[in-house]
Amino acid sequence: MTGLRLLFFLLFSVYSYASVSAQIRPNKPAVAKSANAQDAEISNIRNLYNQINASTLKKEKFNYEASGCVEEGEVIYFMNGKTIVKITESGSIGDGSWKSEYYYQSGKVIFYFESMTGGPAIGKVTKTERRVYIENDRPIRNMENKKIIKVDARSAEVIQTAYKLLIAYQTKDFAAALCNPN
Predict the structure, then answer these.
(1) Are 165 and 84 in contact (CB under 8 A)?
(2) How confident is the model over 3-35, as pLDDT tens digits?
(3) Domain containing 151: what range?
(4) DSSP 8-state secondary structure symbol assigned to residue 122
(5) What CA–CA distance (Å, rounded) separates 83 from 58?
(6) How far apart are CA 62 and CA 70, in angstroms?
(7) What's the CA gap between 128 and 24, in Å, rounded?
(8) Torsion (CA) 147, 150, 151, 152 in degrees, nearest 10
(9) Which stretch is the leader sequence (predicted)?
């Protein structure tokens, strides 16, 4: 009986490790590729971005507000036929505002762009842009303004939010998708 318990314990340990590793993995970049392969994928994403923005797409616009999260929130779904290819989300709170754009191919998020503007009521206003290039649900490049930065936990949050927004199209619960961290 002790041998059976040991076997069960080992199998459980391996399963637990695999589960934890799978949960952590989205914070890491995709499997290391050569610079040329990564540049080619980013070029492909940029081409898809340009195609989506050059297309005539059907738009569906929704407004929402959530105390402590957003004032005058707006979500716009862009569709090619019945397929969502782009979602924009914008809003403000206090002295700051933002516009986020999520791009999709075949139901998978491929690119994220965010522009944030804000600052104190009296003082310098700052503008920050953030880009995340995504392949197979993993960030392959992060940029802040024009500078490449290290892939971080925020990238995984962006990917999760992109999929929450797809679900929110059906539920219309935008505050749940955008204001709740989990």
Answers:
(1) no
(2) 333 333 333 333 333 333 333 344 444 445 677
(3) 2-179
(4) S
(5) 10
(6) 14
(7) 27
(8) -110
(9) 1-18
**What separation in angstroms does the CA of 154 have from each of 28, 52, 71, 141?**
11, 25, 22, 12
Q: Is the dihedral of CA 173, 178, 179, 182 positive or negative?
A: positive
User: Degrees (nearest 5) of the Cα angle 71, 101, 181?
Assistant: 60
Mean pLDDT over each residue of the chain, to the nearest integer: 83
| pLDDT tens digit sequence for 154-176 | 999 999 999 999 999 999 999 99
d(CA 14, CA 2): 18
Distance CA 24, CA 163 (A): 18
Residue 157 near residue 142, CB atoms below 8 Å: no
CA pair distance 163, 35, nearest whole angstrom: 28
Q: Rounded to a whole number, what is the largest CA-CA distance in the chain?
A: 73
Position of tokens 């104190």? Answer: 120
pTM of this prediction? 0.79
Please report the pLDDT score of residue 181 as a whole number: 63
Task: Report residue 59 as tokens.
Answer: 């738009």
Summarised one tens digit per residue, pLDDT across range 119-137 is 877 888 899 999 999 999 9
